[in-house]
Amino acid sequence: MPTVLTLRNIRIVIYTNDHPPAHVHALKGNEAGARFKLNCPDGPVELWDHDGFRVAELNEIGAVIAGNLSLACRKWNEIHG
Question: Which of 37, 40, 41, 46 sees the fewest Cβ atoms within 10 Å?
Answer without folding.
Answer: 41
